[in-house]
Structures are given as structure tokens and as C-alpha cells.
UniProtKB/TrEMBL annotation:
PANTHER family noted in UniProt: 1,4-DIHYDROXY-2-NAPHTHOYL-COA THIOESTERASE 1
Signal sequence segment: none
Gene Ontology annotations for the cellular component aspect, listed alphabetically: cytosol
Family note: Belongs to the thioesterase PaaI family.
GO molecular function, one term: 1,4-dihydroxy-2-naphthoyl-CoA thioesterase activity
Name of the protein: Aromatic compound degradation protein PaaI
InterPro entries: HotDog_dom_sf, PAAI_dom, Thioestr_dom
Naturally occurring in which organism (per UniProt): Janibacter hoylei PVAS-1
Keyword entries, A-Z: Hydrolase
Domain Thioesterase: 48-126
Length: 141
């Protein structure tokens, strides 16, 4: 393991990517052991006015990818998404949802995170698992 410094939440928000920015995802905390972000329900709903399940998956993939990237960075590698799944437990109609990603496994070639998403009352709305493969840095990176 190298002593590469992890990026701060502020740095990650500044480089979160167009989709996360468009969806209003805000990184609140980011370490290899825990990544937390929130996303507004408004603007991310399906026609019935409920939070779109795909929006929950975008939040989960964002969190798991960040955690995997922080871990990969510590190894001098990059992380690339391999698999994601999600179970939607209840609807969110307003306010914010908060996602928390915790590592399931952090290896030399694979990183896996479980992501729980809760509403403003702390009720679980979605559970997701994301697995990323860790690859060597491409030439010139």
C-alpha cells in the first residue's frame, strides 16, 4: 500500500462528474471505510412523483465507485464498475435521500461496497451492492 493522500469531500464534489452534478448529488464524507452523500428527491422522480429507482442506483454507484477509487488510488490503480444491484424498500416523495457506502471487501483486484439509502426520517429506501474491478493505471495516466 502506498501513502497516497485521499481526496477530500470538497475535491470530490468539484470533480464529481456531469451526471452526479445534474442529479444534485453532494458528497458529505469520503474515506475508504465510509462514503456518505445526499441527493434531492425533487428533480429525480418518476411520473408518479416518487424518487426514481434509477436515481437511487446512480447514487449507490457514485458512492461505491468513489470508495473503490479511493481504495484503488492507495494501490496505484483505478477502479472500474463490474456489477451493481439494488432492492427498493420504500418510496421517497420529497426532501433528500442519504446514501452510506461501507466496504464488504477491499482487495488487490476487487472492491465491493454495500450502500444503504435512507430518507429524511432515517427509513431505508434502498439497499445496493456495487463491485468494482481494480486495474493497473493506463499508460500516461
Amino acid at each position: 500500500m502506498t501513502d497516497r493522500q485521499s481526496p477530500s469531500a470538497e475535491e470530490l464534489n468539484a470533480h464529481r462528474g456531469a451526471l452526479a452534478e445534474r442529479m444534485g448529488i453532494e458528497i458529505l464524507e469520503a474515506t475508504t471505510d465510509r462514503i456518505v452523500a445526499r441527493m434531492p428527491v425533487e428533480g429525480n422522480t418518476q411520473p408518479y412523483g416518487l424518487l426514481h429507482g434509477g436515481a437511487s442506483v446512480v447514487l449507490a454507484e457514485t458512492l461505491g465507485s468513489i470508495g473503490s477509487a479511493v481504495h484503488a488510488h492507495s494501490l496505484g490503480k483505478i477502479a472500474v464498475g463490474l456489477d451493481i444491484n439494488a432492492t427498493h424498500h420504500r418510496a421517497a416523495r420529497s426532501g433528500w435521500v442519504t446514501g452510506t457506502a461501507i466496504p464488504v471487501t477491499l482487495g488487490g483486484s476487487v472492491a465491493c461496497y454495500e450502500v444503504t439509502i435512507t430518507d429524511d426520517e432515517g427509513r431505508r429506501t434502498c439497499t445496493s451492492r456495487i463491485t468494482c474491478i481494480l486495474r493497473d493505471l493506463p499508460p500516461g495516466a
